[in-house]
Amino acid sequence: MSDTHFSEHFETLAIHAGNTADPLTGAVVPPIYQVSTYKQDGVGGLRGGYEYSRSANPTRSALEENLAALEGGRRGLAFASGLAAEDCLLRTLLAPGDHVVIPNDAYGGTFRLFAKVVSRWGVEWSVADSSDPEALRAAMTPKTKAVWVETPSNPLLGITDIAAAAQIAHAGGARLVVDNTFATPYLQQPLALGADVVVHSLTKYMGGHSDVVGGALITADQELGEELAYHQNAMGAVSGPFDSWLVLRGTKTLAVRMDRHSENAAKVVDMLSRHPKVTKVLYPGLPEHPGHEVAAKQMRAFGGMVSFQVAGGEEAAVAVCDRAKVFTLGESLGGVESLIEHPGRMTHASAAGSALEVPADLVRLSVGIENAEDLVEDLRQALDQA
User: Mind telling me the catalytic residues?
Assistant: First the structure.
């Protein structure tokens, strides 16, 4: 944590970390430094350490400082997308012949990256149920260099015990990577539980307004942070100044938004749990969820993501998505507006036929911050007609 961070309380850090007043004008919001290059004070004399905006940009630096503070890390790095962040991480950690354990419930884009791209580098991967420590341990090999988990997972809302996963990974000489996109650092801080690297799609809750695409890596290990920064510059998929500014704006309200997302999701889950056309609700806040106790231990609240299965199979699930009115049919998640989608045909189509294939009758919700009664009634009418 930087010396300029005068509080450890999340809400204060979210607003002040990285957001120092502009020294020239006193502006309380960091400027958008929409610039590619910088005047140098003589050959090799960098003013403030800036020479070229792929290497560093003041707006991106402000965001990266903010991200590191919120996750309790030493180094934060911002990228053009979540997958760009993942790509940089994998190329930093892995070499041909190395092995990675990935979860059996992961974002379709992450699976595609491993199945279609990483495997071509000569990197091996295998799938395990990361919610089961014994399954995770059994999947480790002498070549395993990374264990990858999402918790809560996308789209089945599975929960992994981060502390237990960290012990298993470290015992095998591997690093633990946690995708914290669904939870955000407000609800969960994996580094404090033993994770080595946190991954975010900043597009989602961190940005929070469906108007920016970005990704991030945060680590508590200074040496690893330096390696990641080297590769970030060498590969170049960095977050632009305006995108960085948009995410920095979004993180300021993350705490209040996540409280409302979680409150609304609980009310939606209550209705879904009692609706006759819903066969199963997947939400870690439910006492019957197999990961409920772990989630309650490592999360502040249970978040705004909800999945459920519909009687009548795939066509009924698609019909519910089509009939929703307040919930917008669309991919992505984490914005202030509520979204609904059919993972099997949309976000997770790339996992069809694999160990990560999702149920055909599954509907995924990103519960927004609208009036909860409107959200409940919208889903009720969509289900009643299915």
Answer: 54, 107, 179, 204
